[in-house]
Amino acid sequence: MEKETVSHPFLPIFDNESKILILGSFPSVKSRETNFFYGHPRNRFWPLIARLCQSEIPMTIEEKTNLLLTNHIAIWDVIASCKIKGSSDSSIEQVIPNDLSIILDHADIKQVYANGGTACRFYKKYTINQTGKEIIQLPSTSPANAAWSKDKLFESWKQILEVL
Prior knowledge:
Blueprint: E1 4-7, E2 20-24, H1 29-34, H2 45-52, H3 61-70, E3 73-77, E4 79-84, E5 93-97, H4 101-104, E6 111-115, H5 117-126, H6 128-131, E7 135-138, H7 150-157
Parallel strand pairs: 2-3, 2-6, 6-7
Antiparallel strand pairs: 1-4, 4-5
């Protein structure tokens, strides 16, 4: 499989009540196919957010969006476009970052979190100077991060509840 230049296919989820921003790196092939965040069926993001918010696991895009907005959570990705091989974060190059002012100018974001090391690294490389906001790295919910169980992810991610 060759690297291809891909642009981010969907908009961020946020409203003026959003208090935290969770950033991924770039949508996986599955997410690009489903046209929504964390579209891989084994990604643990949606079950984790549902557990943190004491909610049912959302299934539709509408349910996922409502879960986030009801709980004052914004999500997007650091990268607007890049060259990438499939869904491999390690293959990412020629990064053009997203303009996070789209969110930060309209929501009172108290804390920015990275869903994994790649998102954190690219945020620090391309975006922190623009935003002036520190980022806290959380362990990735990707199925590739098999070392982290659902319970271990929950224990690490529950720090977001302190801001909400």
